[in-house]
Specification:
This protein has 164 residues and is an alpha+beta fold. Helices cover 60% and strands 13% of the residues. It has 4 helices and 4 strands. It catalyses: Release of signal peptides from bacterial membrane prolipoproteins. Hydrolyzes -Xaa-Yaa-Zaa-|-(S,diacylglyceryl)Cys-, in which Xaa is hydrophobic (preferably Leu), and Yaa (Ala or Ser) and Zaa (Gly or Ala) have small, neutral side chains.
Length: 164
């Protein structure tokens, strides 16, 4: 948990360090997958979980995956703009713990995927969940952080509404 401090910049530093840990975990796992799997490889782990290597040229759920290439730069720019906005929000609202955790998870995830787009031109996905012949689109640590952050944002807003 980031330390309490009267200085906004020291609180921001703690949140940014947490986001950096998320980015490092994301990139480390992707390096392991790239080094161990060929594109399209599937390795069952359990009856509902596989490790795979997939490349997503689009966004969530492969949105715009098949576009002509412009989406790489669009999503890269969007991710950087979102990161800048989130840092600004953390600077102003870092004392609101649940809200700041949500933003920090989203920031770490967004930057993890931005790095992929900048280096590879696509995002490396490797977690595949399935049941009864239904397969959820492959995802990664960054996507997981973004999803958990979004859930925390919703919970934070529900708490805020309930207080008013």
């Amino acid at each position: 948990m980031p330390p309490r401090s009267s200085s906004p910049s020291s609180g921001l530093t703690a949140w940014l360090l947490i986001a950096a840990v998320i980015v490092l975990a994301d990139q480390f796992t992707k390096i392991l997958i790239i080094g161990s799997f060929q594109l399209g490889d599937v390795h069952p782990v359990t009856g509902f979980f596989n490790l795979v290597r997939a490349h997503n040229f689009g966004a969530a759920f492969s949105f715009l995956h098949g576009a002509s290439g412009w989406q790489r730069w669009f999503f890269l720019g969007l991710g950087l703009a979102a990161a800048a906005f989130i840092v600004w929000m953390l600077r102003r609202h870092g004392h609101q713990k649940l809200f700041a955790w949500a933003l920090t998870l989203i920031l770490g995830g967004a930057l993890g995927n931005v790095i992929d787009r900048a280096i590879h031109g696509y995002v490396v996905d490797f977690i595949q969940v399935h049941a009864g012949g239904w397969y959820f689109p492959a995802f990664n640590v960054a996507d997981s952080a973004i999803t958990i952050g979004a859930i925390l944002l919703i919970l934070d807003e529900l708490r805020r509404v309930r207080r008013t």
